[in-house]
Amino acid sequence: MSFFDKIFGGKEDQPEQKSFWKKIESEEDLAEAIERSYKNRVAIFKHSTSCFISKTVLRNFESEINELGTDVDLYFLDLLAYRPISNKIAEDLDVTHQSPQLIVIENGKAINNASHQNISISQITP
What we know:
Number of strands: 5
Radius of gyration: 14 Å
Low-confidence stretches: 11-15
InterPro entries: BrxC
Distance between the termini: 43 Å
Protein name: Bacillithiol system redox-active protein YtxJ
CATH superfamily: Glutaredoxin
CATH topology: Glutaredoxin
CATH architecture: 3-Layer(aba) Sandwich
């Protein structure tokens, strides 16, 4: 592994999937996330796996997770693998697509969203 790969991550360096994430890989997964928002607040993190900025924001966000209460369900969407679902999220929740992006859903509606360095746990907590 080269010096730059150690710093920025090599092509073979896949993001480690943390156990608190629920993956969105289908329209059914998205429907489930929206349905869950009627019971708990839901946050969807849209991540571009090829983007250094997105990778950095994801790591920073994950480092804050311990500050989050248990009444939130966290969902993860790989934008590159599931772009049509990302487009559906933007359309269904009336939120302009960004990457990386955090969308907070309550009672089936987006109540907050942030992108890039504005993403933090503070967008989720009431």
